[in-house]
Amino acid sequence: MRIGVLTAGGDCPGLNAVIRSVVHRAVTHYGDEVIGFEDGYAGLLDGRYRPLDLNAVSGILARGGTILGSSRLERDRFAAACDNAKALVEKSGFDALIPIGGEGTLTAARMLSDAGVPVVGVPKTIDNDISSTDRTFGFDTAVGVATEAMDRLKTTAESHQRVMVVEVMGRHAGWIALESGMAGGAHGICLPERPFDPADLVKMVEERFSRGKKFAVICVAEGAHPADGTMDYGKGEIDQFGHERFQGIGTALAYELERRLGKEARPVILGHVQRGGTPTAYDRVLATRFGWHAVEAVHRGDFGNMTALRGTDVKMVPLAEAITQLKTVPADRIREAESVF
Ligand code: F6P
């Protein structure tokens, strides 16, 4: 068989582990030919690809990023190019395509599948917000990075009697903030799923200071926002120089707390540090399992589906089911976290 692989959307630790696993299973076990499209769907649409043999994937298991490159997708452009992509896949003699990516990539995979391309998806995102899979690889690594950052920030916060506001990734879902906040022992956690009131954070910090704990670390997801009317933070306002006043919720919240508390506060934006570098053992294993199962699905002719972790098993689930809605943090998980900070 001739199998195409691509990685699209924001990169994520573990992508190379999937590529390696696909190549190992397909080439060694089935004698397949594996081709890697460059820069995500852009490579598919432009016909840019290269052969992937065992040597091409040697030594990449522990490497972050993706050896194939990635790009974000303009959904409309892709929809228009879908028939073209199908023709390209047929012309190049591909028997199957394995796109590895997040919600946008899997939506495009679904479009291709609907257009008749034999597709098996592999979900990835550090945000862990794809429905139908209990976990995505990359998440464990991101949580580890953010947790380590909080451990480190606590010592400097304590030395200077400061409030540290750590902004982690997660535009629509607060999984990284929730789990790194719990693991890092944050004293406050703000999630997109539940608007926060800065007055509650002020109360928490004052209570800590009054019992001699003269520092605090607050973990805030980039998509978190204050409850209506609780904080004027300049969202959408353009200053006299044409710049948006809003510099991200972490920065806005740190300065708001500093103003209200009269104590020093510092914002720390972790940003893409969470996406770079080597994947954890957990992410390498999950990514490797997803790659193995994707090749098995190709050989069963199990198309239009994606790999998913259900409990401890990897199953195939319909792409359509995976992209209908994002998996956000449920209320009971928020309640559990509240009891520890
Ligand atoms: O979806 C993954 C993610 O890392 C989000 O957490 C974050 O909001 C976004 O990608 C950042 O995207 P970009 O790399 O395009 O700035």
TrEMBL record:
Its cofactor is Mg(2+). The record marks G104 as: Important for substrate specificity. It is found in: Cytoplasm. The keyword Cytoplasm applies. Pathway: Carbohydrate degradation; glycolysis; D-glyceraldehyde 3-phosphate and glycerone phosphate from D-glucose: step 3/4. It catalyses: beta-D-fructose 6-phosphate + ATP = beta-D-fructose 1,6-bisphosphate + ADP + H(+). Mg(2+) binds at E103. PROSITE patterns: PHOSPHOFRUCTOKINASE. Its EC number is 2.7.1.11. PANTHER family: ATP-DEPENDENT 6-PHOSPHOFRUCTOKINASE 3, PHOSPHOFRUCTOKINASE. Belongs to the phosphofructokinase type A (PFKA) family. Mixed-substrate PFK group III subfamily. This is ATP-dependent 6-phosphofructokinase.
